[in-house]
Specification:
heterodimer; A: 400 residues; alpha+beta; four-stranded mixed beta sheet; four-stranded antiparallel beta sheet; 12 helices; 10 strands; 48% helix; globular; B: 378 residues
């Protein structure tokens, strides 16, 4: 229980629970399943607006910037209740509400905060401009160049994998300002207005069939000086600390959601037949489902433990990496079980659902999309390097 | 630090003092040498444990014991697992659980005597063929005259029976599964040692030939047997957590020091990643163990959580121990290095008190009961 008057966790929990009961749009998953791009964006803005009116839009932001100003332990309660209520995810605003906010709050100028934070709460959409064709896991290898020209920079290069880039207003950009310096020491952090001249956004198709990936070509794009975040050449350090901000929060909702997915599997196995009996009557199927049930519970326990450590400011070591690897690989196995249990029917042509990438219920697409989790946010190979090196003190590989 | 009744037990303190005591008697080095299984060393270790009060942990405070909760017991069991200790501690804990939870005149007198470690108890919950007694009991009670039965048959895989003064036996009877108290030695009772590849355990068969058992010796029914079986499974889960931690440390240490191709092998991803997977499995095992323990503490019933934990953690420890052998190269296969002691203990843990199949079947029965399934036509 919090010592602050009026901030009792039970009260908070009850208050939010009541609000969610009357505000979570009913049947929203089905709405999204039928939605096209335009409708998806509309839906996202509507939910954002709803949360904003209720005062639940940015619980982790300070109140002076329009956030809820909640303590970490209270934020955990809020995310738990949102997860339990099956509230929609604000996918469109994820980068803006988390990365951008964390970056501007720690390293941005007051002017930058005033210009963007209120706008973000009102729906300004941001995408990430980090990865490049030659800079994925080795992000420091990035080559997009920002040349200083007095009161502005001229930025040229190519960014890859920017989800949502076609719907974004601004882009959080990492670019090289000092090619002579060591890789990590010559990178700067910028806010890029995507309406600037020289910006060319081209979609390319995801394996799931949707046009969800984007290349962002930059050709001498002018970026004003006041759009640089922090000191020149300090971009890598700033990005490193703020990227950590994304981790703990969303994973709890995902692990809670996974419980439902596992129950859907049981239902699937109960309805479908394999040979002369229902799938669920086959011993190995029952055991597969029981094993998955156990691991889903373990994933939720790991996520909740991480949340609580973060809430009290404990050093969580490599726990975020442990949770990410465990969750993503479990998701892969769980969706695969769905594909197998659905049999031939799972191979029917289907369009991906925006906003429900790994839990749309279309098992084959959810399974394909699960690689989005094992690959992005730091590949599981990189995560294992982190766990081995920082968690177990194993030596790094010789680097270049 | 001797514990006395009324002491407030702190989990972390227990863990620390257990680790300290065990390393004092079993050496600072992590290897398991011949001295680890030396009867004199183990006898001295048990006396040291008794002096500090460990046997009393499993006896309720109302019977003069320390009345430790599951989490506190788990802390001690984890350390025993870390050192892969040969000790009657686990057997005695189960015996105390049986005698404190059971009803009837036969149980009560024992608890006081078990607190100081001068007497030992154990439980017989597997048949001679290795089945769980809750599925198929090897010992049967046949009614004779009045309220006297005759017990006959064979129980197997009974821990530390050779040094026990009393054993609580799961047996079949006309009224179903029961648990009765059997004092040792006793006419008609034969005890056979069953040597196992896991040399850190001391397992026995219990053979009964026309042994008289009074109705007053029966202290519980199938519910008690199932509860004790669950306790055994949960205790082994803690053993697995400690053992996994130790094996991981040995392996990470080896990976940091062993140089091949001009660099420590831990710098190669194939090795590093396998170690990372061990840590991931360990963290998962810890939350599963703690969750099962706290569910049991809070509600008194945690069948699903215990089964989830036993299935997952049992498999995880065995996998980790196997990977550890692999990552140690040839050394992992030598007797003297001692890694095999952990591997064999992990494999026995997997099979004892319900294997993964047994426990997953139980989870399935809870979540996917046959009656709730949509029926197939015809």
């Amino acid at each position: 229980m919090s010592e602050e008057p009026g901030r009792d966790h039970d009260e908070l929990r009850a208050c939010l629970r009541t609000w969610l009961k009357s505000h979570v749009p009913s049947g929203w998953r089905d709405t999204l399943r039928r939605a096209d791009r335009h409708r998806y964006v509309e839906f996202q803005h509507a939910w954002r607006s709803e949360l904003k009116s209720g005062g639940w839009l940015a619980p982790h932001w300070p109140t002076e910037w329009g956030g809820g100003g909640y303590q970490p332990s209270e934020q955990v309660v809020i995310y738990e209740e949102m997860a339990k209520a099956g509230a929609p995810r604000l996918g469109l605003f994820f980068v803006s509400l988390y990365h951008v906010a964390a970056t501007l709050l720690t390293a941005g100028s007051d002017g930058q905060r005033r210009k963007h934070l209120p706008a973000i709460l009102d729906g300004e959409v941001w995408c990430q401009g980090f990865s490049e064709p030659d800079a994925g896991s080795d992000l420091a290898n990035l080559k997009t160049r920002a040349v200083g020209c007095g009161d502005h920079y001229e930025v040229s290069g190519q960014k890859l994998w920017s989800s949502l880039a076609d719907r974004a207003d601004w882009c959080l950009l990492l670019a090289r300002t000092d090619p002579a310096a060591h890789k990590r020491a010559g990178i700067s952090y910028f806010m890029l207005d995507l309406r600037s001249p020289g910006v060319d956004i081209r979609p390319f198709r995801h394996a799931n069939g949707g046009l969800e990936f984007f290349e962002v070509f930059l050709d001498s794009v002018p970026v004003p000086l006041e759009c640089r975040i922090g000191a020149e050449n300090d971009g890598w350090n700033i990005a490193r600390t703020t990227l950590a901000a994304e981790r703990g929060v969303t994973i709890l909702e995902l692990t809670e959601r996974m419980r439902e997915q596992q129950l859907n599997l049981v239902e699937l196995a109960s309805g479908g037949a394999v040979g002369q009996k229902a799938a669920v009557e086959h011993g190995h199927v029952r055991h597969l489902l029981a094993a998955l049930e156990g691991e889903v519970e373990i994933a939720a326990l790991l996520a909740s433990r991480l949340q609580r450590s973060l809430a009290v400011g404990e050093d969580t070591g490599v726990q975020a990496s442990v949770v990410k690897v465990f969750y993503s690989e479990l998701l892969q196995r769980l969706t695969d079980a769905g594909v197998q249990l659905e049999g031939l029917n799972s191979h029917q042509a289907s369009a991906p659902v925006l906003g429900l990438p790994w839990d749309s219920g279309v098992w084959m697409l959810d399974h394909i999309n699960s690689w989005g989790w094992t690959i992005s946010g730091g590949t599981n190979e990189i995560q294992r390097n982190v766990i081995g090196e920082r968690g177990l003190g194993l030596p790094r590989e010789p680097g270049i | 630090m001797t514990m006395v009744p009324g002491d407030r037990l702190d989990r972390e303190e227990l863990r620390g003092s257990a680790a300290e005591l065990l390393s004092r008697y079993l050496g600072q080095d992590r290897l398991l040498g011949a001295e680890r299984r030396d009867p004199d060393t183990l006898a001295r270790l048990w006396r040291a444990m008794a002096e500090v009060g460990w046997p009393a942990l499993g006896v309720p405070a109302s019977d003069g014991g320390l009345g430790a909760g599951v989490a506190e017991l788990g802390a001690v069991l984890t350390e025993l697992g870390r050192f892969a200790v040969s000790s009657p501690f686990l057997a005695n804990l189960l015996g105390c659980a049986a005698l404190s939870r059971g009803r009837g005149a036969a149980a009560a007198p024992w608890l006081g005597r078990l607190s100081d470690g001068s007497r030992l108890s154990t439980v017989a919950l597997h048949s001679g063929d290795g089945s769980a007694v809750v599925d198929r009991a090897g010992i049967k009670l046949t009614p004779r005259t009045g309220d006297v039965y005759q017990a006959a048959g064979r129980a197997g895989y009974v821990p530390d029976l050779g040094s026990a003064n009393v054993v609580v036996v799961g047996a079949d009877s006309p009224q179903g599964l029961v648990a009765f108290v059997l004092e040792l030695p006793r006419r008609g009772v034969r005890i056979h040692r069953r040597p196992t590849l896991d040399q850190t355990r001391d397992l026995y068969d219990l053979e009964l030939d026309s042994v008289e058992v009074g109705a007053g010796d029966i202290i519980g029914d199938g519910g008690l047997c199932r509860h004790l079986f669950d306790m055994g499974a949960l205790f082994l889960v803690f053993d697995c957590v400690g053992g996994s931690e130790q094996v991981l440390h040995m392996t990470a240490d080896h990976a940091r020091r062993r140089v091949q191709f001009g660099r420590p092998i831990g710098s190669f991803q194939a090795v590093k990643h396998r170690c990372a997977d061990m840590l991931i499995r360990l963290e998962a095992s810890k939350v599963a163990a703690d969750h099962a323990a706290s569910c049991l503490s809070n509600t008194g019933q945690a069948e699903r959580e215990i089964s989830i934990a036993k299935a997952y953690v049992g498999d995880a420890y065995a996998r980790t121990a196997g990977d550890a052998i692999q990552l140690h190269g040839g050394m992992g296969l030598t007797w003297d290095y001692g890694l095999h002691f952990f591997f064999k203990r992990a494999k026995l843990n997997q099979a004892w008190f319900g294997d993964a199949i047994w426990h997953r079947e139980r989870v399935a029965a809870i979540t996917m009961p046959p009656a709730a399934l949509s029926g197939m036509p015809g």
